[in-house]
Structure formats: C-alpha cells, structure tokens
User: What shape does this take?
Amino acid sequence: MARRLLSEVHPIFYFLSVWFRRLITYLMWSFEGKPFASLKSTEKLSYRVKKHQSVLIRKLGDTDMQLQHNKVINLSIAIERIDGIIIRPGETFSFCKLVGLTTKRKGYLPGILLSCGEAKPGIGGGICQIANLIHWLVIHSPLTVTKRYHHSFDPFPDDRRVLPFGSGATVFYNYIDYQFMNCTPYTFQLRLWLSEKCLEGELRVDQNLDFAYHVFEKDHQFLKIGNKYFRKNEIWRNKIIKRKSGEILETELVTKNFAEIKYVPDAYEQTDEVIYEGHNIT
Assistant: This one.
C-alpha cells in the first residue's frame, strides 16, 4: 500500500502545506532580488512575434458546462492583470505575481481545477488556459523559460485541441508558477483579449527580428502499462532565418512529456514496463 502524504490525511494539513509553500515563495520574491516585469502599456510595440488563439468553450468529458462559462469570467478578470505587460531586458515575467490569488472577493467563480489526480470545481479554475497560450507564444521567441510545470495527468480526450500534447503550463498560486526571463537586448510585450469564441493573445517586440521559430511534435504515442494508460511525446523547435526562406540555424528539444491519462484512447501500445527519465513505470 502506498504511503499517504500528511497533506492527504486531513484537509487542514493540506491547507497548512499550501500556505507554508506560499510563505516560502513570498520570502523568495522579497529577498532573491529578481527584477519582475510590472510595467504595462496600452500602446502596442512595433512588431509581432507570434499570435495564437484557443477556443473558450469545449466539451470536457461529462463535466458541468456551467464551469466552462464560469471559466470565461475568470479569464476576463485574469487577463486584465497581464494584458499590455512589458518585459524589458533582464526582467522576469511571473504569472502568479501578476495575477495574484484568485478569490471570490475579486469576482472569480468556480471553474475546472486539476488537482490530486482528478478534475474538480474550484474558485478561479480555468485560468491555466492563459498560461498555456503564453507558453506557446514564448517558445516561438528567444525568451528563456525559467519555471514551468505541466499537469501530471491528462483528464480529457482531445476536443478541438490544435497544439501538441504537453505544450502548455499549469499554475497554482503562488509556488506552481510560470516564469520566463528576457535575456535578450530586445523589449517584449504580451497582449491578451477575449473574442466571441476564443482567448486570443500575441507576443510583440520593439525591433524587427530576422529569425523565427517553428515548433513541432515528435514521437507521439499512447501506451497501456498494466491497467493504466499513458501519453508521451517530444516537442522540438527549429530556429530559422526569415530572409533565407526558412534556413534552419539550430534545432532544439523543448521538452519531453509523459503523463497518465484518465480516458481510454482509440489506439495504444500495450507494454509491461517503460523507462522514462530514468524511472521504471510498471
């Protein structure tokens, strides 16, 4: 029998564990001396690096659709804290530091949260969709991702999903954060807005870059290991020169993904054991 964590024994221990971690993060913000991006501007920087949109309302298993509509409200509140943010050379973007704690007092409603191996309602649920979109924009740029977490499981089969599996980021205030740093001589800007059907966003820059990035997926596979199902892939990107018809400067592995899924895929490979990142999964 697997040993239970203290935070799993009683809700009070979970509450104390969460706030202990949050306190540690508050202290790190205060004393590590990292310059965080905080300046916002309503004026767009001159050049677009990348634009993307994601559908607001999707059918996710048998979850209550009202949670999806609540999510749209949550997104509208959160993007107000990020839209127009300027990331100057040497600065770090922190999702949690900008958005803050999602509470009823701020107008947040119950949405879908992925926690402890299941999808369940929670205040502020759904704002990870913003982190997903931002991460997709950032990996199409020379910005450096310094902190990123992905969901430990995939709860729903694809429904109008257009990005590769595992190309997003999850957040949970404030210690499961999404951060990137501007180690370039350029100034960047994030813009976010809601259209009728989509969350939309773009990454802009103050100078016209002569290079771009193409992000692609490799080795996607569904596996059945014992009585559980898993999904794996790799995400890569090519840095290309714009003026030379896409000549590749370099190819880079962005991330490897491996996660349990909570549904039965249409096709999969049966295996008894797999080694992932040095760990045996049986």
Summary: The two ends are 15 Å apart (CA to CA). Residues 2 and 8 are 12 Å apart (CA to CA). The mean pLDDT is 90.
